[in-house]
Amino acid sequence: MKKSVKAFSHCSYTKFLLLLNVQKYDISFKQILSPYYMKIAIVGGGAAGFFLAIHLKQAVPENRVIIFERAGRVLAKVRVSGGGRCNLTNSFAHVDDLSHIYPRGARLMKRLLREFSHEDAYRWFEAHGVKLVTQDDDCVFPAVQDSAAVISCLTHQAGRLGVEVRLGHPVKAVKRHEEGGLEVLFSGEGHSAERFDRVAVTTGGAPRSEGFDYLAALGHKMETPCPSLYTFSILHKDLTAMMGLVVEAAQVSIPGTKFRSRGALLITHWGLSGPAILKLSSYAARHLHDAGYRSPLQVSWAGEVNMETVRGYLQKMLSDNPRKQLGTLHPYGLQQRLWLYLLRRCGLCEEQLCGELGGKSLNRLANVLTADAYAIEGKGTYRDEFVTCGGVALSSVNALTMESRHCAGLYFAGEVLDVDAVTGGFNFQAAWTTAFVAARAMAAR
Predict the structure, then answer these.
(1) CATH top class, domain 231-381
(2) This prediction's pTM
(3) Tens of pLDDT along 165-180?
């Protein structure tokens, strides 16, 4: 683990638990609370909402905590994340700069990870019955490779502690109540407004900007929400005919910008996917949103962007195999289907002998390996796995407590904040971390 991130493990969360002599990572703040018990609303039944509710009830069992979920079931994103396996955190073993994994919110996460780190999340889930495994790519999953284990853990702990869950309760507004506290108003018939001492908003899932109108009305600065972590639609029949093909170490970029990423690249029947694409969609989320999800895309199949380096590599390969046909080569370990496709892209015949390739043809080949050009025509349509870029601006939130700077008693956690990450379990870690910090502050008051 890199030194800068290893420091996150020496966090106040562990010290706080040891100070209170608390077992199995349950929190008790009773020593610092008044005897007044509160009624608390959690808006959103996702990962952050459940984690926050659980920690609130662990802190003060007498508090009444109610989760309001607009849909007919809770933890929908947990269910589908990681292909149904739930990549719930990351080991951070190869992270040396948080801005590379949190394009928005890196500074806040650096501070908050000292309070509740990936190691704390790992210990908490294992202490509550979810055995975890860390893959070679540093992603952490339930050992059973099934998101149901995480869902079962969260719902069981919430139920055991007495957290109430109300489905089909879309919240349309949170207002200051004239007699103190906050009033939560709901959409639809049959739901009366309710008054609460504290409210935490933990919604997410790429909402439309109007879903944040009530927060803006309270004075919060809002960053227009838009999706992140999605695949690219590319209308290119010859490319998509190779669906299922993976290039393990490609580099993708958006020409004319600083946005680029490296990693595995997957060709699909609609375009391109894989970690390299998902990371690029995260880095360029705002740029692509503003461009209507239409943009040029540059692909380095070789994973190398220096054309002269690739040209030299190819020249040596050709010189070493003058009597071989071009189609029999496998530069950079590329699969034959892809290599033959790239030869056709250059107007070259796969049966041509290597020794017969001229300088101009070599240049075309080096160019297509390092800077193959495509057009992004849209984003993937699998909305369930989108992560939200945007939300409540961090300038509107107290970084120490997650409390609103504009409305006392209102807190935020999870995707509703303008914090999002690349793929790899980092978004769930942000949910656990911000929820813990918010719960601690809400309970302590």
Answers:
(1) mainly alpha
(2) 0.87
(3) 999 999 999 999 988 9
